[in-house]
Amino acid sequence: MFKALLLLCLMFKVSIVAAEFRLPDGERLADPTKPANQPVVSTQKQKDASVQFKLSYILAADARRLAIINGQRVVEGDWIAGAQVRKIDRNSVTLLINGRSKVLTVSTRPSIKQ
Question: Do the beta carbons of residue 95 and residue 85 sit within 8 Å?
Fold first, then answer.
């Protein structure tokens, strides 16, 4: 009886942890087994307002364009924290978030103070 109760408690604890999993960039993973008629905990606007994008690096060569956003390597067409990478230029990256464009630029301030 004790083993069955312990197993039940462990299974319940695992389901709670799995329902609240977040990626390192802050994106919350949805539970694919959650019933469709369950209410959504937060609105999309609240999620978008809380996500900050930090563009660290751009590599724009002839045939190769990539960027580092929130510490993750992305190329055109990739998704990061609910935003799609639409275009990578030499000095900026354009994201598409809920149908709206957001342009990220690399900070041009020098890293060494003189």
Answer: yes
Token readout for 107 is: 């900070």
Give me 94's structure tokens: 């354009």
DSSP strand E in the chain: where?
55-60, 65-69, 72-74, 79-80, 83-88, 92-97, 100-105
Amino acid at 34: K
CB 81 within 8 A of CB 51: yes
pLDDT number for residue 50: 62
C-alpha to C-alpha distances, 78 to 13, 64, 89, 97, nearest whole angstrom: 33, 14, 15, 12
pLDDT at 2 exceeding the cut of 90:
no
